[in-house]
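Human:
Care to share another protein and its fold?

Assistant:
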Amino acid sequence: MICLTFDTDHLDEKRLTEFLQTHDVPGTATFFCTSPFACLNGSDHEISPHPFLPEGVDWGPELAAKRQMFPDAVGWRSHSCVFSHLIARWLGENRYLYVSVDERFGQAGIKPNRHPMGTIWQIPIYYMDTFDISRQRFWSGPGVRPFDKALVTSALGDDGFYVFDFHPVHVLLNTPDPEFYFSVRDRFRAGEPIKALRYQGYGAGVFFQEATERIHAAGVRSVAIKEALAKYLAACGGESFV
């Protein structure tokens, strides 16, 4: 299964609306939101919180605020994938069913697994655009190939559970690397037209477009994580969370 997910960091209502109007999502997706967005109301997409949990701060108020903000959400992903056993327990106690913060970049045969704390499911992330954008900074060498099309090919050819994570800000800007992003970030936040900001070479936006076109051409539809997990549990005879 293919699950497209989106983290809404650094977006306001206008920018997310712009993303939805200019980029096709083949199927349903999961949006991990920093705040409620009216443009997602009435859509078939799954809406879940995307809390920010910085160092040296009591996380309780932010966790509670996001639970109140998205009272019906069953999934959870934090900014920068911050996580702990104590958070797992808190999530289980507050009616969440899964967490998606475990990075398995490019690994084959990914399956959900039950977290030992908090009675919730771990849904690993197969691909995240920010990994690609920063890959040359941390994984230099001849074998490093950001925006590798083989990642999409492998996911389409396997029966695993493949979660792709994109940030609309980077798709809109077609971000190729951190240096480019930081050079236009303030102008993006100020509302300058995307046409004047977008990178003209190969970046996250072009990769997203090519990936979604290949998914569509293969006759595959993205499935929101909530729905995909329910199908997975039903197929393997496991428990149901409905």
Observations:
- The longest strand covers residues 2-7.
- The mean pLDDT is 93.
- DSSP finds ten helices and nine strands in the chain.
